[in-house]
Design a protein that fits this description.
Blueprint lengths: L16 H12 L7 E5 L12 E5 L5 E4 L10 E4 L2 E3 L6 H24 L6 H12 L3
Antiparallel strand pairs: 1-2, 2-3, 4-5
Helix pairs in contact: 2-3
């Protein structure tokens, strides 16, 4: 009898724990509907010396976190994932790394709540992030 490498002999009619965990993550990942993106001056306020960079949690809910980075010129913003700030801008690498780091921190919080099966809203995520990482 030939068994799949993923199935153990004693669980042949059932999924192995490895496959079960992958299947569970695939099915349950649709339950996490929090989307995080970087945006430039979402409230369209007028600023001298450039535009501030914010993180947006769930575009429909409009929860924004100011990253408190130096303001950048509007033409330096590309908005593309991992290359939000154009390489033409002097501090593009610093800004892109800072944005990626903060998005990662938010995703770690989301993953933590998911693993504990706790409900996490966009507002709650924002408040936890502000307390934990920005000291508010």
């Amino acid at each position: 009898m030939v068994l799949s490498p993923f199935l153990s002999p004693n669980l042949s009619p059932f999924l192995s724990p490895f496959l079960f965990s992958i299947l569970f993550l695939l099915l349950s990942s649709s339950m996490i509907d929090i989307k995080i993106s970087a945006v430039l001056n979402p409230k369209k306020k007028k600023f001298l010396g450039g535009e501030p960079i914010y993180l947006c949690i769930n575009r429909k809910g409009r929860h924004y976190i100011n990253l408190k980075l130096d303001k950048i010129p509007k033409n330096a913003w590309s908005g593309k994932t991992t290359k939000w700030v154009n390489t033409n801008y002097q501090y593009a690498e610093f800004h892109n790394r800072a944005i990626a780091r903060e998005i990662h921190r938010l995703k770690v919080i989301v993953q933590d709540f998911f693993m504990r099966n706790e409900l996490l809203t966009a507002e709650k995520l924002k408040n936890i992030y502000l307390v934990k990482y920005q000291g508010k």
